[in-house]
Each structure stands twice: as C-alpha cells, then as structure tokens.
Amino acid sequence: xxxxxxxxxxxxxxxxxxxxxxxxxxxxxxxxxxxxxxxxxxxxxxxxxxxxxxxxxxxxxxxxxxxxxxxxxxxxxxxxxxxxxxxxxxxxxxxxxxxxxxxxxxxxxxxxxxxxxxxxxxxxxxxxxxxxxxxxxxxxxxxxxxxxxxxxxxxxxxxxxxxxxxxxxxxxxxxxxxxxxxxxxxxxxxxxxxxxxxxxxxxxxxxxxxxxxxxxxxxxxxxxxxxxxxxxxxxxxxxxxxxxxxxxxxxxxxxxxxxxxxxxxxxxxxxxxxxxxxxxxxxx
Length: 284
Hints:
Number of domains: 4
Distance between the termini: 63 Å
Structural class: alpha+beta
Strand content: 25-35%
CATH class of the largest domain: Alpha Beta
Low-confidence stretches: none
Order of helices and strands: EHHEEEEEHEEEEEHEEEEEHEEHE
Shape: flat
Mean pLDDT: 86
Helix content: 10-25%
CATH architecture of the largest domain: Roll
Number of strands: 19
C-alpha cells in the first residue's frame, strides 16, 4: 500500500477534483483502475464526493492495490488458485508460482484467451479478472493457422481448446464446443494434443441445455434446447408437444415472467433448471 503523509490536509487544501475516483486518477494515472482509496483500512467508494469525507489529520489514508482471484492451469492439467495484485507483472506472477507454489516456470509461456502474455505486462493490461483461467504451457510452441467457421485464426499449438473458444465466444463460451470431422474436441486438451494442425477446419457447435418445464397440473416436461433459443421458441416447442396455444402461455423462472424476445441464456436458464408454464393472466 502507498501511504501518503498528511494526505487529508493535502486533499483539503490542494485537490480540486470532486470525487475519490478523480483523486486516484490524479495520483495513479493510467494504473488508476488498479487501486482503491482506503481511510483507516476502509475502502472508500470511488464515486464519493471528497467534500463528504471528514478531514481528520490523524486518519490513515493510503492507496490499496486491488487483487483478483483467478486460476492458473498448467500443462499437466492441474489448476492453481491465485490471488494477485492488478499492477503485478506476468514475470512476478511466474516468480510467485515458482517460489510459493513450487511450480516449474522454466521455458514456460503464459496465455490468456488464446493470446501470449509478455513478462513485462501487468495483470490489468491483460484484462485478467476474477475467475479468469490463465494457462501456462511449454514455451515456443509452433504457431498454427486454423479455420473456425471459415475464419482463419493463428494460435500457438499449446493453446488449450477452451481458451480458443473463449477467444471467439468471450461472452458465452460455456455454450459452445469445437467440432472437427463431426467429433467434439475435448476442452481441456491443447491444440497439439487434439491433433489440430495447420489449416485444420473446425466449427462451433452450440451445446444443448437440459431443463424441466413444470405445468400447472404438477407434471414435468424435459426440454433439450440450445441456450440461444428464445422464450418464444420454447413456447412454440411446448405448443407442439403439449398442444398449449402460444398466446395462452406464460413462462416464469426464478419468480419472474419471461418475455418472448429473451434467450434462455439471457434468462440464466441452465442444465437442471426448473421453468414454470402458467396460464396467461388477463386484466379485468
């Protein structure tokens, strides 16, 4: 933490900005997103007005580096949980893994979302956030061009398949598999292990989710659908199997009525979810 002597007095007399965020940006510049302001070990909201903070000359003001919790996955498939500062470099992360976690870092390259991370980069620049998965594989793998849905992408052969999917499908990677010659490629393999080579042709295949629709009479229907399908698509399916007119259906999940334009993914419907089919309410 960076402690600033007489910081409250400095703020009271010299700082012209309005909010805590303005203050952090003045002192930390391009790395401002990596820090919080703490007073007496309490994090102050970034949108708080400076004039609302009591100017106590004895208060302990300091900048506190934010930390992220993420996973480092090694080439042998093991996962290491790490909590690290956003301003720390990839080199310091490697040193930490070697010194504290006893992981070999000799000739190892770190990748995130299919892209190589240079030693001098900081975690914040790499866009590593909570629950991210950073991979550490053997360095200097051969670069290969692979065709995914008729788009050529260049990847290191040691890139894990799940990272390839995340690179192309960052917001909903969990909903897709990579398929080659009609077979799903295991997500925990590297491209090399999966025998994916130069100019291999792959396709994305959307995964189905399996969930239950509970009817008013207590019975249940098992439904398998891609998460990109809409609530209207679900109603049409229920009309086909249950002869329940779409215009009379009301779909509810987690206590909320779902509109026709939302997708199953938008609604948070996943494997083993319980969705309710109700009769439509009419105003009187």
